[in-house]
Design brief:
Layout: E1 3-7, H1 12-23, E2 27-32, H2 40-43, E3 48-52, E4 71-74, H3 88-107, E5 112-118, H4 140-159, E6 162-168, E7 170-172, H5 181-190, E8 195-196, E9 203-204, E10 206-208, H6 209-222, E11 228-231, E12 237-238, H7 239-249, E13 256-257, H8 276-282, H9 290-305
Parallel strand pairs: 1-2, 1-4, 2-3, 4-5, 5-6, 6-11, 7-10, 8-13
Antiparallel strand pairs: 9-12
Helix pairs in contact: 1-6, 3-4, 7-9
């Protein structure tokens, strides 16, 4: 892969993908929303070329670079947290933006479009999630992700692009959103505050962001056209175990309160990826244990705060 384009480059996955691609000699163009406070760490990054282009501007951006690109990674999405996940009109706009991204990929000469899907496309499922597991999304966010995956595949086929959709499970790591369970817990515990959780009986699959980035690089290079892959570590433990590991890493075991929060309506109780097709097609292997990954994430947070 000589050149790639990334939307959503300032989050945990996008920033890790920049590092992964740069390490393998890929020239990277990132599309950023102007004015976002998260842009700061990229604006002087010599590994990337920055173009300011919000999601609603994708449809008009033209290729004036004089270059053609190989892979387009569409990671950006508006309304990923809180009440925004159930905002039907906002989520519907994301489907339109995803289609705009496919057409932009064609204008920039890309041969492959890789879209970021979500576990939310499945709804609540007992057992490991496969590409062919039936999808019954229960949130506006999940419905829109499912629709975006199907319609971008259709549009990519019409334009002659390879299309790969990656349903991403729970990724954590540096530059993850402050509202995520991992990041919010780290912030509270490092300040000496108590952190409240459910009983943590959920069976969960966490994947470190650098491993997710490697998977996306491999998918862009080796993934099969028209396929959907499920991205996780492939291993799962009760959520309470992860919480205790996190707390131990911060020497704050006494500050965690398991069972202090009731399970929410529609709580997913089993989240685990069956990565067999991903491994078969790309040779991907999750390399980072949760113990190692959470330590790296904590070190990043502490260095940022200093």
């Amino acid at each position: 892969m000589k050149r790639a384009i990334i939307t959503g480059a300032t989050g945990a996955i996008g920033s890790a993908l920049i590092g992964e691609l740069a390490e393998h000699g890929t020239e990277i163009l990132v599309l950023l929303r102007k004015g976002s406070p998260r842009n700061k760490f990229l604006e002087n990054d010599r590994r990337v070329t920055v173009r300011f282009c919000a999601l609603d501007e994708l449809k008009t951006l033209q290729n004036d670079t004089g270059k053609t690109f190989d892979v387009f990674y569409h990671l950006a999405w508006d309304g990923t947290a809180g009440a925004d996940r159930q905002d039907a009109k906002r989520q519907a706009k994301n489907v339109e933006y995803a289609l705009d991204a496919v057409e932009l990929a064609k204008r920039f000469g890309c041969g492959t479009f890789v879209g970021a899907g979500s576990q939310a496309e499945y709804g609540r499922v007992e057992g490991a999630l496969r590409p062919d597991t039936p999808t019954f999304p229960e949130t506006g966010y999940g419905i829109a992700k499912l629709c975006a995956g199907q319609l971008t595949r259709l549009r990519a086929r019409q334009l002659g692009l390879r299309h790969i959709w990656v349903r991403i499970l729970s990724v954590y790591g540096p530059r993850d959103g402050a509202q995520s369970m991992i990041m919010s817990a780290i912030e509270k515990l490092r300040r000496g505050e108590s952190a409240k959780f459910t009983r943590g009986e959920q069976i969960w699959d966490f994947l470190y962001s650098a491993d997710a980035a490697e998977a996306l690089r491999l998918v862009g290079e080796r993934g099969k056209d028209g396929k959907t892959y499920v991205l996780g570590s492939g291993e799962a433990r009760p959520l309470a175990e992860y919480i205790k590991i996190l707390a131990t890493s911060l020497h704050a075991e006494r500050l965690i309160e398991l069972g202090a929060i009731p399970y929410g309506e529609g709580q997913v109780m089993h989240l685990q990826a069956d990565t067999s097709e991903l491994v078969h097609d790309t040779d991907f292997l999750a390399r980072t244990s949760f113990e190692e990954g959470i330590q790296k994430t904590i070190e990043f947070v502490l260095s940022e705060r200093e």
